[in-house]
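Components:
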Amino acid sequence: MKVAIPSEKSEMGSTISPIFGRCPYFMIVEIEAGKIVKSEAIPNPGTTQPGGAGMAAAQELSKQGAETLIATTVGPNAAIALESIGMEIYTAISGTVQENVDAFMKGNLSRANPQNTLSKK
Amino acid sequence: MRIAVTGGKGGTGKSMVATALAVELAKNHKVLLADLDVDCPDDHLILSIERRKEKDVMLEVPELIEEKCIKCGKCAEVCRENAVLFQKEKGPSFMLEQCTACTACMIACPVGAIGRKSIRAGKIYLGSGYGLDFISGELEPGQKESSPIVNATKEVIAHKEDNYDFIIVDTAAGTHCSVIAAVRGCSVALPVAEPTPMGSHDLNLILELLHELKIPAEGVLNKEGIGNRKLAEDVFEEHHVEICSIIPYKREIAELYSRGIPIEDESIKALAKKVQGWKK
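Structure:
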């Protein structure tokens, strides 16, 4: 399975980004049989969009084949987009990308529905 | 002659100037007052004009014909608003909240799998009063884009243009697409400024926009007497824009305005006289 995590920098040790639509990178982590087999940093196309950044970001994740997202917050447009592509979302903990993936693999992250991860208005 | 009354900052007095100028000019000329502040058109309230609906503004948004879709993803590729989400096996999802009805997806689809759904995006109203004719465009609340309503209203104006000596266009505040659409086609713009720091900051933006659009500007300094007029004067000077009218800050003006009665101040009469001179 492929898990996406918004990231400040292009490596697993980077701090997780608290935003979604315009986070600098997504770390795409491939997990098989409880082990990380591959990890890749993808620049987020949402950062260059004048509008609809969340949609562009969601589209990119879909293109990458990610079916799971670990996120702190997503904006309202992104929430709609992620819901429509059936993305499974888990609530991130503060820390690094690596720490979040570890917590996810241990089953310590809670499932969120897109609306619950809306940015605070 | 089509004249845009604009200004950048909200509350500088665009609608006050547009309505008062239109009424004054209408005493001796055929005037059409066009309220193109389609997000919140107020001119009919300022002049207590009863509007009647002329037509709806319909936009065409995409509606997928599933059976025809070959899941090629072309629609998502051409969409500039990121309003089409495409998944390889599932095909496109149209996020109508983001759609600006440009119809690019419908044109790009190689198999004609995207149909058109008509939605009402706004209304156009007509009216008359104080010797002038009136038209206003109004955006349907919740619709994403104002420009299509501005442009639809302009199309109606184009059909009547030759009937009038002056068309006074009241634009929205700001420098966004709907202001650009409203100002385009005008032979001169009257940026209305107020003598305050925020007013001057925004005045700079609107003057830059008018310069970009190559529309000559003649400045109006409103609410003179409060704040610091030099702030606005300096900005006009930097942009080589003359101030053609100074309107004083008067309690009576605010009172009449709030009661829906047109302003007949000396400064407005003087402005109207200047405008009449431009037509020749």
